[in-house]
Amino acid sequence: MINNLDILFPEIFLSLSIFTILMLGVFIKRSFNIVFNFTSLILILTIAIILNNPNNEEKIFLDSYIRDGFSNYFKILILISSLFVLNSSKSFIVENKLDKFEYPIIILLSILGMFFMVSSNDLILFYLGLELQSLSLYILASIDRDNLRSSESGIKYFVLSALSSGLLLYGCSLLYGFTGSTNFDLIANELNKENIGALFAMVFILVGLAFKVSAVPFHMWTPDVYEGAPTSITNYFAVVPKVAGLALLIKFMLVPFSNILLEWQTILIFISIASMILGAVAAIVQKNIKRLLAYSSIGHIGYALAGVATGEVSGYESSIIYISIYVIMNIGAFSCLYLLKKDGQYKENISDLSGISKKHPLLSISFLIILFSMAGVPPLGGFFAKFYIFTAVIEKEMYFLAITGLLTTVISAFYYLKIIKTIYFEDSAITLEKVKNKSAQVSIFLSCSILLTFFLYPSILNNVVNSLFAN
Question: How much is the pTM?
Answer without folding.
Answer: 0.94
